[in-house]
Amino acid sequence: MAMFLAGLIGASRATSYSGLMVARVFHAFGSGVCESLPVQLVNDIFFLHERGKRIGYYTGMAAFTNVSK
């Protein structure tokens, strides 16, 4: 999570293209935690027969949140 935040802060403060790319690489390595954590939470909280629907809700919301912008 620290790499995720460091990459975001570095990208916002970048003054050159190469600095932006370095910050985005850190952001990409850190975002792996943010991408896998919700699925793990669904697996821990819900029963097996409920997981498909709940992961579908999460995936749908993640896919359609950028549409409204």
From TrEMBL:
PANTHER family in the cross-refs: MAJOR FACILITATOR SUPERFAMILY (PTHR23502), MAJOR FACILITATOR SUPERFAMILY (MFS) PROFILE DOMAIN-CONTAINING PROTEIN-RELATED (PTHR23502:SF160)
Q: Which residues form a coiled coil?
A: none
Q: Where in the cell is it found?
A: Membrane
Can you tell which superkingdom this protein's organism belongs to?
A: Eukaryota
Q: Classify the protein's membrane topology as the record does.
A: Multi-pass membrane protein
Domain Major facilitator superfamily (MFS) profile, residue spans: 1-69
According to UniProt, the name of this protein is: Major facilitator superfamily (MFS) profile domain-containing protein
Give UniProt keywords alphabetically. Answer: Membrane, Transmembrane, Transmembrane helix
